[in-house]
Amino acid sequence: MSGIQLLFIGGGGARQVINLSIASPAYNYDVYTNRGPTYVAGTSDITVTISPGVTVGSTSTGSYAFLVPSSFSPGDTVTVVNQGVIQGRGGDGGGGGVPNGLAGSPGGAAVFVNRPTTITNNGTLAGGGGGGGGGGGGQDEGGAPSTPGGPGGGGGAGFNGGTGAAGGLQPAYPGVLRGNPGSPGTSASGGAGGAIKFNDNAPPGAGGAGGGRGASGGSGTPGVGSGAGGGAAGAYIVGQPFVTYPATGTRQGPSS
Question: What is Dmax (Cα atoms) for the chain?
Fold first, then answer.
């Protein structure tokens, strides 16, 4: 994988010492896949170190940023030293109302562990933020619902961040009365919800902001149509019972 340096050292006895270093941004890192050619099942001690300032993320909310699967032999040991950030993908914002807003998407999980593992967390483990909900549509002076359309929700924080949603568009007025879009999320924070674009007889609601690291997205507010709820936060870890923490560091979001 690009940006990942591997150093393999013979273990001075029957055991193999395997040191893996993640020194530049990476996505969907699977420790077993990256175990290297000197791995010997049942007699290997694997240590993965994420360097300071480095973020390991995910390309989708349906996949993990960092995985320690059950594929290793029970006799192996796996240690993770995190000095950077391991972060799930942010959830996408919900679309603006036509007339009702759409719900934001949940954020993705950061770490998946399915065998005994030691994690020394000197950095941050964070679930992806949930996407913000779309705002409800408004009403024009003639009384037609959903014109103007409601603004879109912002994307949740993540690596990658969630996408900000488009505002709602009344089909009778193509390209004219679309609500403002939400902003995309970044690694550090959720994107802002779309602001009200038109203020007619009954204005639309605003789009909800995307959630920050490990936080749910905000709800869109109602206009004539209803605003929608934000997406749930992603977990910072799935497989908590398998993990021993010599240092807990910063952990943001739920766990299971």
Answer: 84
Task: List average pLDDT for each run of 10 residues in the chain, which is 256 residues long.
Answer: 38 82 98 97 98 98 98 98 98 94 98 98 98 90 67 97 92 71 97 82 88 98 94 98 98 98
At residue 18, the 3 state secondary structure works out as strand
Burial of 52: CB neighbours in 10 Å, binned 0-12, 13-18, 19+: exposed
The pLDDT, as a whole number, for residue 197 is 72
Token pair 């290793």 in the structure block, residue: 72
> How far is Cα 25 from Cα 145, in angstroms, rounded to an integer?
46
Count of Cβ atoms closer than 10 Å to residue 118 Cβ = 15
The C-alpha atoms of residue 240 and residue 237 are separated, in whole angstroms, by: 6
Listing from the earlier edge strand, what are the strands of the sheet with 85-87? 26-27, 55-57, 85-87, 124-126, 250-252
| Tokens at 20, concatenated | 């893996």
Q: Judge contact between 80 and 18, C-beta under 8 A.
A: no
pLDDT value of position 202: 73
- Tokens 């934000």 locate to 230
What confidence tens digit (pLDDT) does each residue in 172-194 have?
Answer: 666 666 889 999 999 999 999 99
Q: How far apart are CA 220 and CA 136, in angstroms?
A: 7
Q: What is the pLDDT of residue 238?
A: 98
Paired with 9 in beta bridges are 17
d(CA 242, CA 31): 15
Distances from the Cα of 167 to the Cα of 23, 46, 59, 158, 218, angstroms: 39, 48, 24, 22, 16
Give the residue among 234, 212, 244 at the shortest CA–CA distance from 111: 234
Q: What are phi and psi of 30, to 5 degrees?
A: -105, 115
Please choose, from the candidates 130, 132, 209, 204, the residue with its C-alpha nearest in 3D space to the C-alpha of residue 169.
Answer: 204
What token pair was written down for 163? Answer: 């996408």
